[in-house]
Design a protein that fits this description.
about 400 residues; alpha/beta; TIM Barrel; 3 domains; nine-stranded mixed beta sheet; three-stranded antiparallel beta sheet
């Protein structure tokens, strides 16, 4: 059962204990926004009260000049939108006028976005790879089905900023119908990734109807969701939602934590709701300057993910999307960071570092193979020693 707030909206009872704790993130941030903790648990309230301009942000957070001006100057590039919950993760301290908080770097617009010598609108050429609108078909056996347009937070590094300029994409009936028809007509498609935008920003009934239609296609074996709601709006990921999805197994969820600071008791509960109903959760991070671009930060992220049962799956090299030059990290640095994990954390917790291209994902890793002598393979160990494995290079 679920409790109800004063507006009679359903409140997930599994989060109520957080609302009852005065020092919880839920209670503290609810107070900053002038609502009760129970109201703060309503995910629809967050979507209706997204922070979209500098005035709203400044009411709960001290902004740097770059951030304040960014809201106004960058509307033409990418709209801003941040849930009150995610605003609550941001630190208030400013260092020399520049904010170094990894949460702020991901969500608040900044003047630096105006300076980008490499950025493009569609770095993965998804539009040319869409046989019907919003169905991206790159690999023979799977498609990305972009049914959603709305997001709890519009991440500043989003590689689908181009969709922000359009209207009417969110669970558009024609787009969904045409996508279903295309998937049904192509028996090679076994795996459908439902993405957007964020597909979890829809009613449970809407999501169930979509999953039912996909499950009715005999050759569709796997249904995956790509969602950042466990990170940016955890109250949306209810036990009721997970229970509904579990009726249509195999269902998988990939989410998107970028730093350990995002892993809160609220986020932990959201992930638990999924995995406790048999829905595996994988994490796809993006390597971002100032967010996770050090061995220590990446190690902390991977360790915390394992603790909440979200498997580190991918770390993507940042796309050359317009307005993101200030967030990009070199591939050399990325290889160094990922190499630092090997031998220092369980292999289960080491994600694949990958470069996503219009032709698909390319794994990037340190080359431990130094060469071969006859049938002997010469390798560098994870401790930097030389190892000869005899008779294997045939």
């Amino acid at each position: 059962m679920a409790g109800k707030d004063s507006a009679t909206n359903l409140i997930p009872e599994e989060f109520l204990h957080l609302a009852a704790q005065p020092d919880s993130l839920t209670a503290r941030t609810a107070e900053r926004f002038g609502v009760t903790p129970q109201t703060f648990l309503n995910w629809r309230w967050h979507m209706k009260h997204q922070v979209v301009n500098a005035e709203q942000a400044a009411a709960v957070l001290r902004l740097s000049t770059s951030e304040s001006e960014g809201f106004e100057k960058l509307q033409h590039l990418f709209n801003a939108g941040i849930t009150p919950y995610y605003m609550g993760l941001m630190t208030s301290s400013l260092v020399d006028g520049n904010e170094s908080c990894p949460i702020r770097l991901q969500a608040l617009p900044r003047n630096e976005e105006l300076r980008d010598s490499l950025g493009v609108k569609d770095p993965l050429s998804e539009v040319p790879h869409s046989p019907v609108r919003e169905v991206v078909h790159v690999y023979p056996d799977r498609v990305a089905f972009c049914v959603a347009q709305l997001c709890p937070v519009y991440c500043r590094y989003c590689f689908r900023k181009r969709r922000d300029e359009e209207v009417g994409l969110h669970f558009n009936r024609t787009i969904v119908d045409n996508g279903i028809a295309y998937i049904a007509s192509n028996p090679a498609i076994r795996d459908v990734l439902i993405t957007g935008g964020d597909p979890f920003i829809a009613a449970d009934q809407t999501l169930e109807h979509l999953v039912q239609r996909l499950r009715a296609i005999p050759h569709v074996e796997i249904i995956r969701f790509g969602t950042r709601t466990p990170v940016t709006l955890p109250y949306r990921v209810t036990a009721d939602l997970a229970r509904m999805l579990a009726r249509y197994h195999p269902i998988y969820v990939n989410t998107h934590f970028n730093c350990a600071e995002e892993i809160t008791p609220e986020a932990t509960q959201a992930v638990a709701n999924l995995v406790n109903h048999g829905i595996p959760v994988g994490n796809q991070a993006v390597l971002l300057k100032g967010v996770n671009d050090s061995p220590e930060k990446m190690m902390a992220l991977c360790r915390q993910l394992m603790k909440i049962r979200a498997r580190p799956y991918y770390v993507f090299h940042p796309h050359a999307i317009e307005g993101t030059e200030h967030l990009r990290v070199s591939v050399r640095r990325g290889i160094e960071i990922m190499k630092s994990l090997r031998g220092n954390i369980t292999g289960l917790a080491i994600p694949t570092y990958a470069l996503d291209t219009p032709s698909g994902k390319i794994p990037i890793q340190h080359n431990y193979i130094l060469g071969h002598e006859g049938d002997d393979l010469i390798l560098e160990t994870i401790r930097g020693e030389i190892w000869r494995e005899t008779g294997v290079y045939q």
